[in-house]
Specification:
Number of helices of chain A: 6
Strand order of the largest sheet of chain A: 3-2-1-4-5
Distance between the termini of chain A: 32 Å
Order of helices and strands of chain A: EEEHEHEHHHH
Largest interface: A-B, 27 and 27 residues
Helix content of chain A: 40-55%
CATH topology of chain A: Nucleotidyltransferase, domain 5
Largest sheet of chain A: 5 strands, mixed
Strand content of chain A: 15-25%
CATH architecture of chain A: 2-Layer Sandwich
CATH class of chain A: Alpha Beta
Number of strands of chain A: 5
Oligomer: homodimer
Chain lengths: 183, 183
């Protein structure tokens, strides 16, 4: 599966594309940062984020988009910009029918380092190792976006099994036609 | 001037269009609410908000869009959805080149009632009076959207004078060519 990870932000929005399946070596297809000037009007900054995300979706055609879940209790000074940038990323994906998954920062850290309290350096080191890169991606927002994509690939099997179970349950509820088709 | 006011929200996003100038009776051109189902996925809700705002922009062609400024310290449980809906409204306007203005709730209340601490009923009563309506618009989000538009029309003259002064100052700074053109 191919996943675009997005670490949302207005000044720096980290983006990273990873391909692979759980239990196999992963491949990085791209990493970068969408930047908008702090002195620009908010509306124009959101348009710039939209254009940047659209370019990444056009170029890499991900099957899933994984966005960091924003909490209102953290980083009060920047949380509004983060929430607004994440809204734009989710909007771009949903408009194309691409499923959007939200993962918390501690879920992401736990997925790639084994600890939900790992620091940025530790996340960067593990992203470098897992994707077999020469050096940690810079800035940290870019590394975090890759970590989000990795987290989604590794957590996805459980989520997919759940979705399959729900789908099968729904199919059995309308048993006659389902049996008819498989007979 | 024609202004679309937006009281952002995911469940109910209030929208109202007012036309007029400061010091003259105002006219309501439309009022309503863009709703999205609480059980839908966040990405799909943002797409629904986008489609709703786009319809209002298409139909009324406002010259300005006035959006309530969201603060992270208020209403922690709903503030993220409010921030995300406001991002979509600002994005839709900025994409069309329509100037976006943000007004705080107390600026809006002070503009239409004279008090920054007025309650919803007071705002609804003044919106009804100022727009010569038969009854207060329901729900309150719709009335708040109209109040935002009224606030923008009434505050705009001062902002416009400031923008004019800045523009003149900039023109004088490049005096020779400016003089040359007016000579």
């Amino acid at each position: 599966m191919r996943v675009l990870g997005v670490d949302p932000g207005l000044t720096r929005c980290g983006v990273g594309v990873v391909e692979g399946v759980a239990g196999r070596p992963l491949t990085m297809l791209g990493v970068g940062v969408v930047r908008t000037p702090a002195e620009a009007e908010l509306g124009h900054r959101l348009v710039a984020v939209e254009q940047g995300i659209e370019q990444w979706l056009d170029e890499h055609r991900p099957e899933f988009v994984a966005v960091e879940r924003v909490f209102s209790q953290h980083n009060v000074s920047t949380v509004m910009g983060t929430a607004q940038a994440s809204a734009v990323a989710m909007l771009c994906a949903a408009r194309r029918g691409i499923p959007v998954a939200l993962h918390t920062p501690s879920e992401v850290k736990a997925a790639v380092t084994g600890s939900g309290r790992a620091d940025k350096a530790q996340v960067g080191a593990m992203v470098t190792r897992l994707l077999r890169l020469d050096a940690p991606p810079r800035p940290a927002d870019a590394a975090d976006a890759l970590a989000l994509a990795i987290c989604h690939i590794w957590r996805a099997p459980a989520q997919n099994r759940l979705q399959q179970a729900v789908a099968q349950h729904t199919a059995r509820a309308s048993a006659p036609s389902w049996k008819g088709r498989t007979a």
